[in-house]
């Protein structure tokens, strides 16, 4: 299997049941900020003046990947040493007893860890049995660095240290569902990376735009695909679950992570149709061809959901003139003509299915494409209300309304033509991925988007869990 595919598989299955591997607030809707921090670019990764990593790592080859992992361990443990007492009743944080490096590509360099063979297992793991934490330097760490970033690799280890935190805090035991364990660990990773983004780490730096987007992309690839889901409250959760838990920690701190349990997860999913929840075990939903017929079905479906006074027309191909908007390929909305124009070949390319099993580091599929076209329809709905279609508010309003549309598209809506289009949980992951890598869904009529994927996803999620009137109120 190519390296990048191994990396994606590793991020998808970073923990197993036997190897333990915020809330809505006005500032979260601010396009210029990310949970109160400025939404700006800047450096990511190891600081130029970072101290040298210290400590022992069993099995290390003393290479650059192990040095980065050890530096991350130093930093994460420093953070929890400082913050754990105030978060958990004054108790001190005890560093993880043993750190282990292995090479999953080499049977001789892949030891048994926590009772499991690490050969061919490009993962990171925490083992509560002997308080040890291991990472794969052969594929996982170098792949994460190459395809996401150094700070994304740090984020993977922050998740594993999150498991150590929950054990030290007494938050989990043998009866705790796997999904609760994983959501808490994602949340604790968010708490640590907020500290880094705040500029308080002496070893790493993280900006709140492309840097944080890369961390979220790693979390997205760590989702459970529908055919990997292990049943109710097992596994890691969907892309939206994992990113949502991370955002809670990043925004609200460790106390929020401690409150994650089956009830909290259920409340976070409240209002989400059952078909969009990972509450089942089934094969991966099939992909719908992106063609004239499916686009016509999509337009008909959106018309039945939103009942516009004057439905936008759909044109495919060509470059029609539009005096009051710039193109936003592969789908553009022209207010003066109330027309959505689609570059079908480009849309098909964006919607070509790829996941962690494919030769790609980007999750995408039919709903990556359909959500883009849907967002242009949402601009038509705003135009009908005589709202401004340019600027940050319009971009986030569009993402929010697209979330509303996606929720309703998961229902069996009767269409006059007799055709059908119904979304499932895997489709939602594809739309969320698009918000990070091709964020047209969260853009205005000129294709201009807000800088932070964190904010784009939050706006989309708010619509997914709400309704169109809430979107208009939140983004006036």
Structural description of this entry:
This is Peptidase. With 476 residues, this protein is mainly alpha-helical. It has two domains: 3-270, no CATH class; 292-474, no CATH class. The chain has helices at residues 3-12, 64-87, 140-147, 150-168, 178-197, 210-221, 239-252, 254-258, 262-268, 292-306, 344-350, 366-384, 392-409, 425-437, 453-464, 468-474; strands at 33-34, 37-38, 45-46, 98-102, 112-113, 116-117, 124-127, 132-136, 204-205, 313-316, 331-334, 339-342. The strands form five sheets. The protein has a three-stranded mixed sheet, with helices on one face. A hairpin with a 2-residue loop joins strand 5 (112-113) and strand 6 (116-117). The longest helix has 24 residues, at 64-87. The radius of gyration is 22 Å and the shape is elongated. It starts with a helix and ends with a helix. Residues 1-25, 224-234 and 279-284 have low confidence and may be disordered.
Q: Indicate the overall shape.
A: elongated
Count of helical regions:
16
Name the average pLDDT. Answer: 87
Structural class given helices, strands, pairing?
A: mainly alpha
What strand order characterises the main sheet?
4-8-7
| Major sheet characteristics | 3 strands, mixed
The proportion of residues forming helix, as a percent range, comes to 40-55%
Tell me the domain tally. 2
Q: Give the terminus-to-terminus CA distance.
A: 49 Å
The strand count comes to: 12
Q: Which spans have pLDDT < 50 for at least 5 consecutive residues?
A: 1-25, 224-234, 279-284
Cα Rg: 22 Å
Protein name: Peptidase
Organism: Mycolicibacterium komossense
């Amino acid at each position: 299997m190519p390296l990048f595919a191994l990396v994606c598989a590793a991020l998808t299955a970073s923990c197993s049941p036997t190897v333990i591997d915020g809330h809505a607030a006005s500032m979260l809707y601010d396009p210029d900020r990310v949970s109160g921090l400025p939404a700006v670019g800047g450096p990511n990764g190891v600081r130029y003046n970072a101290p040298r990593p210290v400590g022992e790592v069993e099995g290390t080859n003393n290479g650059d990947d192990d040095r980065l992992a050890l530096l991350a361990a130093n930093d994460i443990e420093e953070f929890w040493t400082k913050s754990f007492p105030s978060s958990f009743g004054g108790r001190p944080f005890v560093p993880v007893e043993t750190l282990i490096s292995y090479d999953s590509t080499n049977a001789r360099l892949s030891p048994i860890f926590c009772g499991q063979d690490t050969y061919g297992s490009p993962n990171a793991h925490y083992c509560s049995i002997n308080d040890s934490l291991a990472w794969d330097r052969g594929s996982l760490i170098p792949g994460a660095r190459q395809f996401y970033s150094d700070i994304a690799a740090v984020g993977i280890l922050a998740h594993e240290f999150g498991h150590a935190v929950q054990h030290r805090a007494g938050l989990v035991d043998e009866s705790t569902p796997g999904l609760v364990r994983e959501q808490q660990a994602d949340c604790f990773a968010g708490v640590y990376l907020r500290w880094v983004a705040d500029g308080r780490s002496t070893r790493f730096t993280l900006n709140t735009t492309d840097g944080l987007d890369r961390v979220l992309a790693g979390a997205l690839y760590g989702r459970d695909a529908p055919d990997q889901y292990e049943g109710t409250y097992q596994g890691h959760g969907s892309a939206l679950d994992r990113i949502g838990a991370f955002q809670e920690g990043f925004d609200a701190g460790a106390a929020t992570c401690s409150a994650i349990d089956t009830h909290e997860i259920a409340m976070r999913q409240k209002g989400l149709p059952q078909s969009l929840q990972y509450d089942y075990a089934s094969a991966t939903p099939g992909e719908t061809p992106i063609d004239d017929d499916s686009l016509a079905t999509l337009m008909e479906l959106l018309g039945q959901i939103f009942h516009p006074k004057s439905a936008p027309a759909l044109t495919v191909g060509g470059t029609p003139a539009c005096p009051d908007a710039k193109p936003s390929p592969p789908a553009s909305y022209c207010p003066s003509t109330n027309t959505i124009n689609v570059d079908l070949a480009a849309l098909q390319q964006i919607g070509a299915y790829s996941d962690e099993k494919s030769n790609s580091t980007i999750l995408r599929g039919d709903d990556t494409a359909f959500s883009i076209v849907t967002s242009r329809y949402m601009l038509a709905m705003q135009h009908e209300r005589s709202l401004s279609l340019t600027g940050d508010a319009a971009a986030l309003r569009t993402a929010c309304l697209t979330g509303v549309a996606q929720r309703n598209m998961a229902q069996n809506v009767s269409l006059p033509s007799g055709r059908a289009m119904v979304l499932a949980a895997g489709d939602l992951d594809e739309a969320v991925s698009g918000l990070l890598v091709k964020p047209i869904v969260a853009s205005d009529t000129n294709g201009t988007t807000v800088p932070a994927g964190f904010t784009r996803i939050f706006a989309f999620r708010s619509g997914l869990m709400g309704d169109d009137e809430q979107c208009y109120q939140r983004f006036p």
